[in-house]
């Protein structure tokens, strides 16, 4: 019998997520992977009695994974979740047992099984998912959740592949010291652009300056209009938007004609119960003839392999730096999650299980 600790969603979020929305439970993983043969017998019997075809792949593909790092991400606030079920999310960890020829015991893997310490996952026919890690070289395992994982791929495909930056263009990115934004700004520098970044503290702004951002503003101290009047005299060509809401309303007038806007996220609005009433942005989209992209990184999951070699090379060459905010302890999953909405993280937020 394998025991797992699991954070379940006790009730749907209402406004800012809070501790009472979660419950920490113990779960017995039954049948454990050790009883595969038993499961198989029952299944064969069931199939022959009911006339179904055997599907042995389902049973032989299972892997028992122990999480080492779990990710906390803003999407967990807005994606659909079921009450009483494990909180959604992914992690990286070690294969403890395997009945799958693609995964060996002791191997490190990516696992998408929610907020849990242990999971039995399959690469086929399972609500949960196990995947091979990207090439990490000497990077820490947790980088598979950050710069070489979902946020890094969001930056790569959202910015390079979708916005197609050109040398000399001006790029605006908000949430700039976060997992996605910090990579976007550095990719923009690699591509020869001028970068304007907005973040929520002096420490974050100092880090962005050290990364080579050309103009950095603490949006809590300098309003967007004042900042862009100063830093974007020739206007903005690419706006990579992680924040949405009023920031976007204030930023759009600074876009150049035929500029590109990548709508990556809108974290400033995630707790809003009802739609915010704001000036209509479509007049600016019309007047400036902007191209606005909606982008979801999982739509290009089958292309992530294209980005890994270049991203790893840039990291190894020191052109792309990354930072993590590591919260220690599975018990602290909710706190680490809340912290995303109060700006507590610099770079990728992860929990060391
Ligand atoms: N489209 C996709 O496929 C995709 C994939 C990944 C992420 N995203 C989106 O991209 C954005 C960034 O995600 P991430 O994983 O990189 O998170 P992150 O930036 O590492 O963490 C969230 C950060 O957002 C900032 N923030 C929180 N509330 C804010 C507010 N009201 N106004 C302005 N800033 C606020 C905080 O930094 P400050 O201290 O600077 O305020 C916080 O540290 C999110 O909107 C997320 O939903 C989209």
Automatic annotation (TrEMBL):
GO molecular function term, any single one: 15-oxoprostaglandin 13-reductase [NAD(P)+] activity
One biological process term in Gene Ontology: prostaglandin metabolic process
Main location: cytoplasm
Record keywords: Acetylation, Cytoplasm, Fatty acid metabolism, Hydroxylation, Lipid metabolism, NADP, Oxidoreductase, Phosphoprotein, Prostaglandin metabolism
Keyword Lipid metabolism annotated: yes
A Pfam family the protein falls into: ADH_zinc_N
GO CC annotation terms, alphabetical: cytoplasm
Family stated for the protein in its record: Belongs to the NADP-dependent oxidoreductase L4BD family.
Oligomer status and interactors: Monomer or homodimer.
Name used for this protein in its record: Prostaglandin reductase 1
Originating species: Lottia gigantea
């Amino acid at each position: 019998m394998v025991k797992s600790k699991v954070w379940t969603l006790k009730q749907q979020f209402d406004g800012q997520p809070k501790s009472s929305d979660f419950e920490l439970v113990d779960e017995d993983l039954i049948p454990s992977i050790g009883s595969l043969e038993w499961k198989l017998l029952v299944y064969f019997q069931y199939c022959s009695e009911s006339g179904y075809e055997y599907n042995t792949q389902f049973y032989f593909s299972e892997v028992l994974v122990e999480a080492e790092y779990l990710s906390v991400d803003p999407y967990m606030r807005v994606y659909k979740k079921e009450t009483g079920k494990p909180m959604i999310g992914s992690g990286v960890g070690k294969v403890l047992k395997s009945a799958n020829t693609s995964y060996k015991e002791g191997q490190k893997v990516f696992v998408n099984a929610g907020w849990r310490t242990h999971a039995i996952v399959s690469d086929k026919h399972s609500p949960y998912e196990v995947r091979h890690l990207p090439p990490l070289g000497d990077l820490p395992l947790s980088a598979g959740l950050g710069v070489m994982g979902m946020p890094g791929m969001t930056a790569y495909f959202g910015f390079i592949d979708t916005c197609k930056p050109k040398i000399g263009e001006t790029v605006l990115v908000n949430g700039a010291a976060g997992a996605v934004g910090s990579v976007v700004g550095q990719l923009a520098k690699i591509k020869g652009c001028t970068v304007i970044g907005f973040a929520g503290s002096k420490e974050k702004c100092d880090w962005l300056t050290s990364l080579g951002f050309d103009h950095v503003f603490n949006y809590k101290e300098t309003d967007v209009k004042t900042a862009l009047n100063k830093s974007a005299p020739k206007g903005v060509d690419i706006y990579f938007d992680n924040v949405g809401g009023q920031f976007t309303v204030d930023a759009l007038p600074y876009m150049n004609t035929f500029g590109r806007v990548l709508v990556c996220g809108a974290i400033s609005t995630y707790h809003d119960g009802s739609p915010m009433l704001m000036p209509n942005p479509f007049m600016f989209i019309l007047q400036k003839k902007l191209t606005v992209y909606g982008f979801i990184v999982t739509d290009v999951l089958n292309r992530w392999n294209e980005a890994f070699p270049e991203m790893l090379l840039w990291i190894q060459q020191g052109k792309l730096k990354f930072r993590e905010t590591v919260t220690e302890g599975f018990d602290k999953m909710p706190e680490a999650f809340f912290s995303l909405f109060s700006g507590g993280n610099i770079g990728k937020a992860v929990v060391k299980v």
